[in-house]
């Protein structure tokens, strides 16, 4: 069973996915979480704090989901596909992550956007560790060669995340097609 904070954050993510920024009214969030409006303010001082919390929660969910999927993946290709599936899943469930590329048009203060960028950078470091482990598995299996430097890992990760979040934001492409495309790009990048 989720605690109240998780119920609130899950409700924010669901409402944002269903209605965009217009769905993020405190009354709608409270109704969705089946709690009183005042309860939200026991956990978050403002709507911006709530948004930051949901942003961070969405990224945490990605990390937890990736850890489980990668644990069950036996090959480099399975691991790579699992990572892409996790990114696609979080992009679909947490669409405001895709909006970070358009952060100048977000309806929040510069300090909030700065906090969100710090969270994103920290998450990127965690994602780099995941990507490094996947690439190491590919090298161990002889499918790819070691990357010449960490910038190659970062480039591959940014290709996957940025393109997937943009596709989710604009609803332009099937994630299954992207998964194979990313895998082929990875094979070429680390040939």
Features:
single chain; 191 residues; mainly alpha; Arc Repressor Mutant, subunit A; Tetracycline Repressor, domain 2; 2 domains; 8 helices; elongated
Give the helices and strands, then pairings:
Layout: H1 4-19, H2 26-33, H3 37-43, H4 47-72, H5 76-93, H6 110-140, H7 150-170, H8 175-189
Helix pairs in contact: 1-2, 1-4, 4-5, 4-6, 5-6, 5-7, 5-8, 7-8
Spans where pLDDT lies below 50 across 5 or more residues: none
Distance between the termini: 46 Å
Overall number of strands: 0
Report mean pLDDT, rounded to a whole number. Answer: 83
Biggest sheet, in brief? Answer: none
- Beta-strand content: under 5%
Give structural notes.
- It is a single chain.
- The chain has helices at residues 4-19, 26-33, 37-43, 47-72, 76-93, 110-140, 150-170, 175-189.
- It is mainly α.
- The chain folds into two domains: 1-44, Homeodomain-like (Arc Repressor Mutant, subunit A, Orthogonal Bundle), CATH 1.10.10; 47-189, Tetracycline Repressor, domain 2, CATH 1.10.357.10.
- Helix 1 (4-19) packs across helix 4 (47-72), helix 5 runs antiparallel to helix 6 (110-140) and helix 5 crosses helix 8 (175-189).
- The longest helix is centred in the middle third of the chain and has 31 residues, at 110-140.
- The protein is elongated and about 55 Å long.
- The mean pLDDT is 83.
């Amino acid at each position: 069973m989720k605690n109240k904070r998780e119920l609130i954050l899950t409700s924010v993510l669901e409402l944002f996915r269903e209605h965009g920024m217009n769905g993020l009214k405190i009354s709608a969030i409270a109704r969705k979480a089946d709690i009183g409006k005042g309860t939200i303010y026991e956990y978050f001082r403002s709507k911006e704090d709530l948004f930051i919390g949901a942003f961070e929660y969405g990224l945490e969910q990605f990390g937890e989901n990736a850890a489980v999927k990668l644990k069950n993946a036996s090959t480099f290709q399975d691991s790579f596909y699992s990572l892409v599936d996790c990114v696609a899943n979080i992009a679909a469930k947490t669409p405001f992550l895709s909006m970070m590329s358009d952060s100048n048009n977000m309806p929040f203060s510069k300090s909030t956007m700065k906090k969100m960028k710090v969270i994103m950078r920290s998450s990127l470091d965690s994602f780099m560790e995941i990507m490094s482990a996947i690439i190491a598995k590919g090298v161990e299996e002889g499918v790819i060669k070691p990357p010449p430097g960490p910038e190659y890992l970062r480039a591959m990760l940014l290709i996957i995340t940025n393109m997937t979040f943009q596709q989710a934001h604009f609803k332009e492409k099937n994630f299954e097609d992207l998964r194979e495309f990313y895998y082929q790009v990875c094979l070429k990048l680390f040939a």
